[in-house]
Amino acid sequence: MSKRKVERLNLLKFMPFRFNRLAAEFSNALAAEYMARFGIDIPEWRVLATLGLRDEPRSAQYVVRCTRTHKSRVSRAVGSLVTLGYVARAEAADDRREVMLELTPKGRAVYGELVPLLLKREEAILSCLTPDERAQLNHLMDKLERSFDLVQCGE
């Protein structure tokens, strides 16, 4: 019986794992800001951030597509944000079955307070990179996102 060489995978060098691990660390570092100040979690922040980017109401499905967060998590996050008074629900004008979401004035205030804090925290995290490395990283991330045909909701 011949011994077949088994190919091995170094998980710590496997790019999908590395991206996932970095994303978790990045999210947790930022979450400390909004959890401490407003008691909201990562899915709730994603809903706030997605709605905060636009002035007009958006559907929960739009949030799901932009954030790649499961619809049940988005639904729970929306429920919590409505209870906190940060998000309001309204029927869509063209389809009464679809619920549209928008930030309330209180939600806009929270968003307005958090954005500069989170941008400052992002800056601190990325400070280990030179400006050229940051530009290159951004370019490469854009390229990877396009390769997966990810929705660019901010454009």
Count the helices. How many?
6
Q: Which regions contain 5 or more consecutive residues with pLDDT less than 50?
A: none
With strands numbered from the N-terminus, the spatial order across the biggest sheet is 1-3-2
Average residue-wise pLDDT? 92
CATH topology-level name: Arc Repressor Mutant, subunit A
- The best one-word shape is globular
Taking Cα atoms only, what radius of gyration do you get, to the nearest Å?
Answer: 19 Å
Order of helices and strands: HHEHHEEHH
> Helix/strand/pairing class, anyone?
mainly alpha
According to DSSP, the number of beta strands is 3
Through-space gap between termini: 59 Å
Number of domains: 1
Percent of residues in helices: 55-70%
Q: Can I get a quick summary?
A:
This protein is mostly helical and 155 residues long. It has helices at 15-38, 42-52, 60-67, 71-84, 105-125, 131-147, and strands spanning 58-59, 87-91, 99-103.
